[in-house]
Amino acid sequence: MILKKQTLVVAMMSSLLVTGCATNDGDRTRMEGAGLGALIGAVVGGIAGDEKGAVLGALIGGGAGFIVGNEIAKRKQQYATTEEFLDAEVAHVQAINDSTVSYNKNLRTEIAQLDREATRLRSQYTAGQVKQTELEKKRASLQQQLATNRELEQGLVNELKVQERILSEERPARSQNDPYIARLEKEVKALQANLSQLRDGSSQLASIDQRLSV
Amino acid sequence: MKSGLSRLWILSLAGLLSTVAAAQPPLDEIRQLLRAGLMPAPEMAQLAELSEQNLADQLLQLDPYARYFEPEQGYLTLPETVERAGIGAEILMQQDEILLLPYQGAVAERAGVPYRSRLLAVDQQPVASDSLQQLASRLRGPEGSWVSLLVETTKGERVEFRFLREIYRPLHVELLQGEQRIIRIRDFITSMTVPSLRATVEFITQSPQADHVPPIIIDLRDSTGGELFEALDLAAAFLPAGTELVTLVDREGEVQRFHAPQGSKYAHPLFILIGPYTASAAEIFAGILQTQGRAVVMGELSFGKCSSQTQVRLSNQAMLRYTNREVLLPGGIACTGAGITPDVSVSDSQLNDAGYLVDLINEWTQQ
Amino acid sequence: MRQVKRIGVVALSLTLGACANVSTDPNEGGLFGGIKGLQTGAYDQRVQEREERLANMRALQGQLTTEQAQLEQERSTRQAALANERRRLKELDSNVSKLSQNVDRLAQEHGTEDAKVQELKSRVQTLQSKMKQQQSSLDALEGSGMGTTDADLRRRQLEEQRDALRREYDLLMKLSLDLAG
User: Quick check: A2 contacting B, CB < 8 Å?
Assistant: First the structure.
C-alpha cells in the first residue's frame, strides 16, 4: 500500500513529459486529459490497491482521461473554429467598411467639387444673363432707332419725290410764272412791237401756209 | 347857225366817207405794186379784175403766196410769247389735213398726243370743214376747261385724248430730249431764231451729257419757213465769213448776192433733218449748208418753194404780201420746184422715227 | 498514506493553480483551459462577443452602404445638374455671341442709316432751297452760269432774243434817224 513516492513522481513526470510532447492545443488537451486521468487513476488505484493498482489505475485513468480530454479538445476546436470564422467575418466586414468609408469620403469630396463647379457655372450664367439682357436692350434700342430712321428715310424719300415732282411739274409753269422770265418775255414782246413799225418794207418772207399756235 | 350846222354835217359826212374809203382795200395801190414787182409778172387783165369782194382769191390766182392783211390783223406771225390758254400745240395744213405739232412740255404732249398726228375732231365735232383760224378758236379756250381731241397717229391709229387746257409759252427753239438732243426749229423769225439757237447750242454743250464736240442736229421736218434773212443769218452762223449764201433775183433779173458776215461761228458737225413739208426759208437754209458742204441733210425731198415774198404797208394801213424775189442757192442753183434732195434718204415711216434718224447720224459720224 | 495525500493535495493545488491562470482562448490553455472555458462559459462569452461585434460591423456596413448609395445618387444628381449648367451656359454663350454680332450689325446699319437720313435731309433741304430760288427767281442768274433745266433754256433763249432785238432796234432807230436827219 505504500505507494512509492517514486512511482508517483514517475507518473507525474511522465504526465508532464507527455504533455510536453503535444504539438497543438488539441493534442495537449488530450494528453493533459490522459495525463491527469492517469495520475488520478494512479492515485486512486494506489489508494485502493497497491502498485499494480496504481498502474492499472493510471492506465484506466489515462484512457478515461484521454477520452475526456479528446471531448474537450473537440469542443474547444469547435469554439476555436467558430471564433476563427467570426474573426474572419469581422475582419472581412471591417475591410469592407473601411473601403466604404474611404469611398464615401471620396464621393463627398467629389460632390463638394461638383457643387463648387456648379456654383461657378451658375455665377457665369448669371453674368451671361445680365450681358444678354443688356445686349437685348441694346438691340431693341437699335431696332427702334433703325425703324424710326427707316420711317424717317421713307418719309424723306417720299418728300423728295413729291418735291422733285413739284419742281419738275412746276418747272414749266414756274418758268412761266417766274418774275424774271415774265419780265424778259414782256421786254421781248415790247421790242417786237416797236420793231414792227421800223421793219416795214425791209423784210423778206419765205414761207408757205400758215401755222397757228393753239 | 345853219351854215355852222351844215359845215358840221359836211365834215361828218366827209369823215364817214374817208373812213369807209380807208376800210376798203386800195386796189389801185395793190395793182401798182403787183405790176411793178410781182414774180412772175402778172397779166394786166387779171390786175384789172381785182375787186374788194374777191381780193383774197384773186390774189391767190396771181400768186399762191399773195395775201392781203386788214389793218387790224397782225402781219407777221409773232412768236407766241403771249400768254395763251389752249392745248399747247401748233396746227398747220398739209394736203388738206390738219396736223398737230405739240410743244415740248405743254399739256397736249404730256397727255400723249403724238407729234404730227392728224386732227380729226374737237369735242366730238369733225374739223374737216373748218378753216385754220376757226379751228384755232375752237382749240384755244379758258385755262382749266376740258377739251377732247380725236386724232390719227402717224401709225394710223385713232386715239382720243381728253385734258384740261393750260397756259403755256413754248420755247421758240425746242430741244428734243433723248439720246441725242435734236434742236427743232419750227419757223424763222427776225432776231428770235438765231439768238434762240445760239442759246440752245450753248445749253447743249454745257450740259453734263454733252460730248466734247457734239454734233448739232437741226430738225426742220415741219418747218414751213419764215423770214428769209433770219434763215440766212442762221446759215451764216455755221459758215466762214465771206461764204456765199444766196442770190436774190427780182423780176427784172437784178441780182443781190449775200455772203456770210463776220461773227462767231460754230464748228460742230451739223445734221439737218428735212421732209416733204420743209419749205421755203427752211429748205433754203438746208440747201445753203448742203451746197457748201457744211451739213449732212437727211430725210426726204423738200417742198420746193424757194421764192420770197415782201410785205408792203398800204395807205390804209393794211398789208400786202406778194412774191417779189426768187432765191438761188450758192452757185446759182435753183430749188423752186426741185426741192432739196437729202444726202441720206429715208422712207415716210423712218422720217417720223427720231430714234432711227439718230442711229443713222451716229453711223455717219463713226464712218 | 499521508505522503500520498500530500502529493495529492500538491497535485490538486498545482492543477487548481494552473486552472486559475489558464487562457480562455480555445486555441490555448490545453485541458484546464478547456475545462475552464467550458465550465465558466468563457468560450460562449467569447463567441458572443464576436457575434456582437460582427453584428455591429454589419450594421455599420449597412449604414455605410446606404450612405454610399445616397452619396452616389447625390453625385449622379450633381453631375446631371452640372451637365445641365454647362449646357445652358454654352447655349447662353452662343446666344450672347449671336446677339452681340446682331447688335454690331445693327449698330453698323444704324450708322449707315443715319448717314442716309442725313443725306436725304440735305437733299430735301437743297431741293427746298432750289424751289425757293426758282421762286425768288432766276434774276440772280441773269447773264451768268447755265443750269440744265427747262427754265434755264427758256431764260437763255429769252435773254439772247432780248439782246438781239435790242441790237436790231438800236440799229434801225439809228438808221431811221440817219434817214430822217
Answer: no
